[in-house]
Design a protein that fits this description.
Length: 603
């Protein structure tokens, strides 16, 4: 405090002297030094935490991506196992009580299905074994010569009975069934027993998965110098990187991971060597195995020491540079900053035509250029908002125009007239009520956003009218959970798609057609599906429709009622990731999916 008072006294006493600038520097040196020390220390701490967090985020992402890949492939294999099981169960039941029932077509059917699965998943599946009735009905698939097949049903049955699932997964092990003549073969197995436990006929379907498939995923992921990616299950651990014993998990660590209640997370362990290990893990959905990134804790922050010494050097340099440049900064910064401030005030008053002619190459110059670009961007956004507003109004107008098409109204009124002539007053009353409700919701007091319940009521009224007009041609079903009714939707979204299904799908089909409307929540989106079993769309026409949906610009004439109008209105309202998707198979039917964000209507 005495030193500061002394400096202030010298500063005041030397106001008119040549030492005035030096006095100012001496005043700010302690403040700048304190500021640099605080900043450097804070930066070091923040960097430490950030590096640690980034490492965890990176490893979590690596584990997650590897899990997705494994789940995708193993899920496909599991589905093929289910498929083969469904194929061979009728064969098993036929030969359960008499081997005389084994027919050649059983072998042909099973052989064809095994060949298809093996060829389609050759990169994953090493071999397949189908074994019934103590080997009297046996099929196998592999691409190498074996010396012998050594299979003990009781051994594998015991593994199956020890498990708590219908299907049993066995971690990487030596293949003791198909003895490879060149070298030992390691595989991962999935198998399922066919038949009940008391049956004299016993059967098993066994898939052996290639070691190379798992190594291609686990071995090529770089965790750290002594880290690795491993698959952990109750019967072992699978890893392909050679690490020292002191950098591995012991049995207690593995047991904790296998029994972990959380499907994903991170955990610190101390193994039997005293090494502190970090594990970032996730759980495979297919078989419940843990996919874990395992690495020593000290490797996570090995760059922190370098950051510490670098921070000290930078603090010293910053202190020196700040003292040298203190006077220069005041002169260089003040004038451009004042000029920039004056022009920002003009912009604040609403004048966007200001030119920020700041030519300095320092931060002030970059700030001026940045503000200039920002203003240009604001102008562009204003123009874009105006353009999109006009587009939306055109789309709304086109939608309302389509809703009151004279031929639709005429045909409906004519149908009502005919019902009255035939004294079908009940049907006429239903049709009039549906028509009134249909146009009432179309108008909706001018509101663009309505509830899902109102939209479903609108399309249901439309289907009631069309069903009564085409009783022998059209059936429909609507399956929307009432939990979705309170969500909001852009008005007149579903009816145009239903109309397309009737006029372009059902009308061109012989016999009665069916339209099915469903809706559900997917993540944070509402998805509605309109499916018909009509004539479908030829592939070339389907590609043309999809290309038109992706066009960012189209003539107003193409914004009529229908698929394009609905797609355009959704994108204008909610953004490019939403809209309409269409799938169709000629002579089979068409499915149109409509995706919007799941938002509640606020009135």
């Amino acid at each position: 405090m005495k030193n500061i008072k002394s400096i202030l006294y010298n500063l005041l006493s030397s106001r008119r002297s040549k030492h005035f600038k030096a006095s100012i520097i001496r005043l700010f040196i302690p403040l700048m030094a304190l500021s640099v020390i605080i900043t450097g220390t804070s930066s070091y701490y923040i960097a430490y935490r950030q590096i640690e967090n980034n490492a965890y985020v990176s490893l979590t992402d690596t584990v997650s991506q590897s899990k997705i890949l494994l789940d995708s492939k193993l899920g496909d294999i599991f589905e093929q196992m289910l498929y083969i099981k469904n194929v061979v169960e009728p064969i098993y039941l036929s030969i359960k009580y008499s081997e005389d029932n084994i027919k050649p077509q059983y072998y042909i059917s099973a052989e064809n299905n095994l060949s298809r699965v093996y060829s389609n998943y050759y990169s994953v599946i090493d071999s397949i074994l189908m074994y019934f009735n103590d080997g009297r009905f046996t099929l196998q698939k592999r691409d190498y010569i074996t010396e012998d097949i050594n299979f003990s049903f009781d051994v594998w049955r015991q593994k199956y009975n020890d498990g708590d699932r219908d299907f049993y997964w066995l971690n990487l092990h030596q293949d003791d069934i198909f003895k490879y003549h060149r070298n030992k073969n390691r595989v991962v197995s999935i198998f399922n027993l066919i038949g009940d436990n008391d049956s004299q006929l016993r059967g098993i379907i066994l898939f052996n998965l290639r070691e190379s498939f798992f190594s291609s995923i686990l071995e090529n992921v770089e965790i750290s110098q002594n880290g690795c990616l491993a698959l952990i299950s109750e019967d072992g651990i699978m890893l392909f990187k050679d690490v020292e014993d002191k950098y591995t998990l012991d049995e207690n660590n593995l047991e904790w991971l296998v029994k972990a209640e959380d499907n994903s997370g991170r955990q610190k362990f101390s193994n039997s060597f005293g090494t502190k290990m970090m594990v970032v893990y996730d759980t495979l959905d297919t078989n419940g195995w843990k996919l874990a990134a395992v690495f020593p804790e000290n490797e996570l922050t090995q760059t922190i020491g370098f950051i510490k010494y670098t921070s000290v050097i930078i603090m010293i340099l910053l202190l020196f540079v700040s003292v040298v440049l203190s006077n220069m900064l005041a002169r260089i910064v003040t004038e451009p900053l004042s000029q920039l401030t004056r022009k920002v005030k003009i912009v604040e008053e609403g004048n966007l035509d200001v030119v920020f002619d700041v030519y300095a190459e320092n931060e002030i110059g970059k700030l001026g250029k940045g503000i200039t670009k920002m203003i240009e961007r604001v102008k562009g956004l204003l123009e874009q908002v105006q353009f999109e507003h006009n587009q939306k109004r055109q789309a709304e107008f086109a939608a309302l125009q389509a809703q009151i098409r004279p031929h639709f109204l005429y045909n409906t009124l004519y149908s009502i007239k005919q019902l009255c002539k035939m004294n079908e007053m009940k049907d006429a009353e239903i049709m009039v009520s549906a028509l009134a409700a249909f146009f009432r919701i179309s108008v909706s007091k001018g509101e663009e956003i309505i509830t899902v319940k109102e939209e479903i009521s609108h399309v249901e009224n439309y289907l009631i009218i069309q069903h009564m007009r085409y009783k022998d041609k059209l059936n429909y079903s609507i399956d929307i959970n009432e939990d979705l009714y309170t969500y909001s939707i852009v008005k007149l979204m579903l009816q145009p798609i239903v109309e397309n299904a009737i006029y372009h799908g059902i009308n061109n089909k012989r016999g009665v057609g069916l339209i099915n409307i469903t809706g559900y929540i997917e993540e944070e989106d509402l998805v509605f599906a309109v499916k018909d079993d009509g004539i479908g769309i030829p592939p070339e026409k389907l590609n043309e429709i999809r290309n038109l949906l992706e066009c960012k610009e189209r003539n107003t004439d193409s914004l009529g009622m229908g698929l394009f109008n609905v797609h355009e209105r959704i994108r204008i309202m909610f953004g490019q990731r939403y809209g309409v998707e269409i799938e169709s198979m000629f002579q089979t039917g068409t499915a149109v999916n409509l995706r919007i964000p799941a938002l509640k209507l606020i009135k």
